[in-house]
Amino acid sequence: MSKPVITRFAPSPTGYLHIGGARTALFNWAFSRHTGGKMLLRIEDTDRERSTDAAIEAIYDGLRWLGLDWDGDPILQFGRAARHAEVAHELLERGMAYKCYCSPEELNQMREEARAAGKPPRYNGYWRDRDPSEAPVGVAPVIRIKAPLSGEIVVQDHVQGKVVFKAENLDDFIILRSDGTPTYMLAVVVDDHDMGVTHIIRGDDHLTNAARQIVIYNGMGWEVPDMAHIPLIHGPDGAKLSKRHGALGVEAYRQMGYLPEAMRNYLARLGWSHGDDEIFTTDQMVDWFSLDSLNKGAARFDFVKLENINGHYIREAEPTRLYEVMLATAEEVARNADVVGLSQNKDTVLAALPELQPRAKTVLELIDLAQFIYAQRPLPIDASAAGQLTTDSRDMIGAFAEVLRGLNDWSVEAIDGAARAFAEARGLKLGKVAQPLRAALTGRTVSPGIFEVMVLIGKQETLDRLADQVALA
Fold first, then answer.
1. Yes or no: is domain 80-184 CATH 3.90.800.10?
2. Which pLDDT tens digit goes with each residue over 48-95?
3. How far apart are CA 82 and CA 413, in angstroms?
4. SS3 assignment for 69-109
5. d(CA 129, CA 99)
6. Pairwise CA distance, residues 83 & 107, whole Å
7. Beta-sheet strands, E only, within 151-225
8. 99 is known as an active-site residue
9. Is 429 annotated as a binding residue?
10. 427 C-beta neighbours (distance < 10 Å), count
């Protein structure tokens, strides 16, 4: 019987949860859920100068927002330093590691000599086979792994296939510093082993690390986990993803108005596929997910595609849930006027949302589209809408306002009928009446149906907004 799958997501808390890390977490989560296994969370906080509590909280917050839950309590790597050191000393006892007393000056000299000889600048194994009695007095050593001097290190990878590293190209890297603290290479292996990790899914920038880590696994006689090294995300131009492409923190996408289900869908397609499916639920992704479906080629980040997918999920969302997201987003990005307007006009916003949802691709666009409901008079008129408000159209608005004033039935059907009769009497197409009305009542050229707008804001507010524009004729 095979062991249950255990994956892990292991970010460094030196900043926000960036989009590449979010995708790595998603793949680990999806695979663990697909197999009925577990995903563990490990915070690799050994860089004490750069690791911060705020960054750790940002990682937790980003994962929760994305809906990627983890199993058990998060593990903080720094708190396991004693265990890492214990394994380093066990490797010493096994003859798989050794103490090195080289000074920084000696190491620099080795690197220079290697460069002069046209070789990679690295440690030359000076202390590898020396007698411990030659150790200088008062010098705290580092501990180095004994890398194999010949043969091959083979990484059997679910994405990259069989990757072979020549042993002669590996150096005796440090696993324990002279102050007794572990290096990243050692800590990762010890933690993955102790946590029972069966599958390591991470970026392909770690592929060379895999060969070094296998040396440690072999030195301890531990089983090497299955590995899947996924290509990094690139920008639309094919270059490595940077901030100008969209390499932002997860919270930035939340603030820009993307829904978590849209982000999960989009990120899944950056390096994984299921036929030609572009839109799929999270449950479908979990059901279909396999490591063998991960792509070997680098995925390209495309904001247009992300917006289109987000637009789909906005159209599908329940208005009550969407309203809460709009309010939370307005609060997070400090749009105080919108917070007040949305809070005070909940029922009207909810009634308008089915009309607004097909017109928006982000939550911020939804908020902008809803502003007509609670905008303060006189309405700000944007540039495109201002073009609809000529002297002639303002005169027409004044005439139609009188028709509206006489309506006893304030319904979409009654207003629509009145507008059609008014346009026909003047020899106008309905759009020539509706577009100036939209500009006057919303300040925009895009809104829900203009007769629906009138019902939503009410008769008196409609007449007052129209009167503001008529006064400017």
1. yes
2. 777 888 889 999 999 999 999 999 999 999 999 999 999 999 999 999
3. 76
4. CCCCCCEEHHHHHHHHHHHHHHHHHCCCEEEECCCHHHHHH
5. 10
6. 28
7. 152-157, 161-166, 174-176, 199-203
8. no
9. no
10. 7
How far apart CA 445 and CA 358 sit, in angstroms, is 15
CATH, domain range 383-470: 1.10.10.350
Based on its alpha-carbon atoms, the radius of gyration of the chain, rounded to whole angstroms, reads 31
CATH superfamily for 250-374 is Glutamyl-trna Synthetase; Domain 2 (1.10.1160.10)
Distance CA 239, CA 346 (A): 45
Question: What residue segments make up the domains of the chain, in order of their start?
Answer: 80-184, 250-374, 383-470
User: How confident is the model over 20-41, as pLDDT tens digits?
Assistant: 999 999 999 999 999 999 999 9
**pTM, full prediction:** 0.91
- pLDDT < 50 regions, the chain: none
User: Is the CB of residue 159 less than 8 Å from the CB of residue 271?
Assistant: no
- b/e for 304-317, b at 16 or more Cβ within 10 A? eebbebbbbbbeeb
Nearest to 225, CA basis, from 276, 123, 156, 310: 156
Tokens in use for 4? 């249950």
Please tell me which residue in 119, 240, 243, 346 is annotated as part of the active site: 243
Tokens of 386: 């201002």
Q: Please state, in angstroms and rounded to a whole number, the distance separating the CA atoms of residues 35 and 6.
A: 9
